[in-house]
Amino acid sequence: MTRTEEFEELRPLLFAIAYRILGSVSEAEDAVQETWLRYGASPAQPRSTKAYLSAVVTRIAIDVLRSARVRREEYVGPWFPEPLLTDPYEDPERSAELADSLSMAALLLLERLTPLERAVFVLREVFGFGFPEIASAVGRSEAACRQLAVRARRHMDAGRPRFEADRKEREELAERFFDAFREGDVDGLRELLAADVSLVGDGGGKAPQFASAVIGADNVARVLAALVPPFDRIGVVAEPHQVNGQPGAIFRDRDGKVISTLVLDVLEGRIQTIRSVISPDKLGHVGPVADVWALKREANQARRPQPDRRS
């Protein structure tokens, strides 16, 4: 097998590692590309290509995350990871860990960790790497990596919900949610929402968004239902789609361009959080991005009463 073939075989794993460390599709893709360049420039053939490339992409991702942290502290409004529609890496033996680590909720919990803690947690808990490989990847001793793993696991466990919803329950609830949303059914939406549900958007200061989180089942149901008439008039459609392994949707304009993504966080038979990514900077990998400001103007126009032209 050539070096190119070996790399391409491992590319899905490398991207999956980088994305979970960085929470960014574009930065993860750049990290994988930089890994390929370093691999091509290395004269020696590593004993384990998988271990070598995983270590390289981890080190690159850690460096990128350290600089990204500064930008995220100055981010306008709530910061969410870039939505991922499909995880390219599959491992039947670790499917539960892979799926759990991909959710928006889990990625936001990972933001609480230091870059080293995050890298160690991802390699150990998600991908099952041994501590000798992890130590080599992050440039710390095995003992230090074990301590980092313990601290990271403690932080993650403290923030996790105590009861997880199974996939079938999530999908059924999401189907009912989008049916009620399309109909603008306030009561139908309200009964699917947790009492303290929150609706939050990430516009990054570059797209219209909610002034702040909308809290409470009645408020969220009314806000969502109010979107339906203007959306209908300007041809916006909600396309149900898995987002970060959770039920969600892609909103598109009449030309099929991407407006936003939306993901539902389901727990104990109710929707607990609705997260929408609206920032155009985070949607380019999903497809051609719509001009959301123009759509907002069109939607506002559609809200206004139309003049009676019968006279």
UniProtKB/TrEMBL annotation:
Residues 7-69 form the RNA polymerase sigma-70 region domain. InterPro entries: ECF_Sigma-70_Domain, NTF2-like_dom_sf, RNA_pol_sigma-70_dom, RNA_pol_sigma-70_ECF, RNA_pol_sigma70_r2, RNA_pol_sigma70_r4_t2, RNA_pol_sigma_r2, RNA_pol_sigma_r3/r4-like. Keywords: Sigma factor, Transcription, Transcription regulation. Interacts transiently with the RNA polymerase catalytic core formed by RpoA, RpoB, RpoC and RpoZ (2 alpha, 1 beta, 1 beta' and 1 omega subunit) to form the RNA polymerase holoenzyme that can initiate transcription. Belongs to the sigma-70 factor family. ECF subfamily. PANTHER family: ECF RNA POLYMERASE SIGMA FACTOR SIGJ, SIGMA 19 FACTOR. This is RNA polymerase sigma-70 factor. It comes from Streptomyces dengpaensis.
